Automatic annotation (TrEMBL):
EC number: 1.2.1.79
Domain called Aldehyde dehydrogenase: residue spans: 27-494
InterPro entries on file: Ald_DH/histidinol_DH, Ald_DH_C, Ald_DH_N, Aldehyde_DH_dom, ALDH7A1-like
UniProt keyword terms in alphabetical order: NAD, Oxidoreductase
Subunit-structure text: Homotetramer.
Name the UniProt record assigns to this protein: Succinate-semialdehyde dehydrogenase [NADP(+)]
Name of a matching Pfam family: Aldedh
């Protein structure tokens, strides 16, 4: 299919016209309001979901808790084998799952498939990890004593995800959590409930065959009934939240107040630095993918282009020409580079940011308008991606607008670039384009970019799962996905074992 009007693939993912919003080993008959999911590409109703209330939420958490008690006792490599099978199920359904993301969220289908690939990749990573949950051994200061640490399963993990990566962020968390011996309860964005239901249907046969369906708890519900309940729920020792900085701060204070652990993935304000020796044939496509990919709705989207003053004119001219060629349209059509924004509110927010940037002195160089498309697409939320001139201190620029607006900001040299780059509240992703090895190393050094991700000669978005993903400052400090991010999903236990009949005390203390 090349059109968002063809929804015949939905049945292969078990999605019906009306669906239930809670799963705890089987789909639960919910008693909440009906949530409609509409395609951002056409405005048409895709299907509806009966939402969970606090009653169904309770049933999801209770079942997850029960499953956790059994799951934590299964050896990690055997847990990994089940994760392997979940990864294979996602492989088998990659085409339909990618289309589902595109249909419900509006990113180009290439990017929809890419997101499913991220889920598969993190599953593979987690399988390997299942034999590598290493603890350290330490020399004890006491004779005849051994000291070491072990990593034990933590409990039931609460996962709250955003609309823009409606599958991958759950997979980053859950594939590690399952391997680590944990259960999960997932609250997806109300903008992408069907994606969560389709993915759950793909993996649940594997868990259910082993009597562990409840590990993949799902609760699609309102703010009070589900989101706030999770945040305040002492049965969830870790809350992994992806969303805005404003909500992230509320989540952080409530979870910290009950001594819960947090993984926060909040906004970015990602800068791409172009030094005067940069290879512009690389800068252009990297900027285009970073600023226009996913219609500017990635946390890692390129928002600020910090260009050496001698290149501003050339880079701007070339970008403006490239923006003229961007195919805006049905994201299901593989020719499309830029699909719709998620909803009308997102379009209004983009227009408001462009207006306020103009008021502060910025100039709109290209795009920044509603794009009215014909036929089936007339009801979609399309815009033309915008390029603006701006200064870093503008309120509009300091703020993350989840839309394709690229601010071009001149810089004088590397030091100035680093200062401007770091001069925003967020700290997720960053990039520098240069052939000067010293400049590149300095940008990623302790006195360079203050972000969790800092790249050289590649753009700000499109990170691989093998590295830890996350950032500093208002981004929230969390790390997910690769490297040793798994440690957040386990509890560390330090063991000291005495294999003598003496009882010496540490620090040389004599007691009695
Ligand atoms: C996000 O936007 O929330 O690095 C995640 C990237 C993707 C993940 C983005 N791998 O762009």
């Amino acid at each position: 299919a090349t059109s968002s009007t063809d929804t015949s693939f939905l049945s292969s993912l078990g999605i019906q016209d009306q669906n239930q919003g809670a799963y705890n080993g089987s789909w639960i008959q919910c008693t909440g309001e009906v949530l409609e999911s509409r395609s951002p590409a056409t405005g048409e109703l895709i299907a509806s979901v009966q939402m969970a209330t606090s009653k169904e939420y309770e049933a999801v958490v209770a079942a997850a808790q029960e499953a956790f008690q059994r799951w934590r006792a299964i050896p990690a490599p055997l847990r990994g084998d089940i994760v392997r099978r979940m990864g294979n199920a996602m492989r088998e359904h990659k085409d339909a799952l990618g289309r589902l993301i595109t249909l419900e969220m509006g990113k180009s289908v290439q990017e929809g498939w890419g997101e499913v690939q991220e889920c598969i990749d993190i599953a593979d990573f987690a399988v390997g990890l299942s034999r590598q949950l290493y603890g350290l051994t330490m020399p004890s200061e006491r004779p005849g004593h051994a000291m070491r640490e072990q990593w034990h399963p933590l409990g039931t993990i609460g996962i709250l995800t955003a609309f823009n990566f409606p599958m991958a962020v759950w997979a980053w968390n859950s594939m590690l959590a399952f391997t680590c011996g944990d259960a999960c309860v997932w609250k997806p964005s109300p903008k992408t409930p069907l994606t969560a239901i389709g993915l759950t249907n793909v993996i649940r046969p594997i868990l259910e065959a082993e009597g562990f369906g409840a590990l993949a708890g799902l609760a699609i519900g309102g703010n009070e009934d589900v989101a706030q309940a999770m945040i305040d729920d002492a049965r969830l020792p870790l809350i992994s939240f992806t969303g805005s900085t404003a909500i992230g701060k509320l989540v952080a204070s409530r979870v910290a107040g009950r001594m819960g652990r947090l993984i926060l993935e909040c906004g970015g304000n990602n800068g791409l630095v172009v030094l005067d020796d940069a290879d512009l044939d690389m800068v252009l496509p990297a900027t285009l993918f970073g600023a226009v990919g996913t219609a500017g709705q990635r946390c890692t989207s390129t928002r600020r282009l910090l260009v050496h003053e001698s290149l501003v004119e050339e880079v701007t001219n070339r970008l403006v020409r490239a923006y003229d060629d961007i195919v805006i349209g049905d994201p299901m059509d593989q020719k499309t580079l830029c699909g719709p924004l998620i909803d009308e509110h997102a379009v209004e927010t983009m227009m408001a940011s462009i207006e306020s940037c103009k008021k502060e002195g910025g100039k709109l160089l290209r795009g920044g308008e509603r794009a009215k498309l014909d036929g089936d697409l007339a009801g979609g939320h399309y815009v033309t991606p915008a390029i603006m001139t701006a200064e870093n201190h503008y309120q509009t620029v300091q703020h993350e607008t989840f839309a394709p607006i690229l601010y071009i900001i001149p810089i004088k040299d590397l030091e100035h670039a680093i200062e401007v780059h770091n001069g925003v509240p967020q700290g997720l992703s960053s990039a520098i384009f240069t052939n000067d090895m010293k400049a590149a190393e300095r940008f990623i050094s302790a006195v360079g970019s203050d972000c969790g991700i800092a790249n050289v000669n590649i753009g700000t978005s499109g990170a691989e799962i093998g590295g830890a993903f996350g950032g500093e400052k208002d981004t929230g400090g969390g790390r997910e996905s690769g490297s040793d991010a798994w440690k957040s999903y386990m509890r560390r236990q330090t063991n000291t074992v005495n294999y003598t009949s003496e009882l010496p005390l540490a620090q040389g203390i004599k007691f009695g």
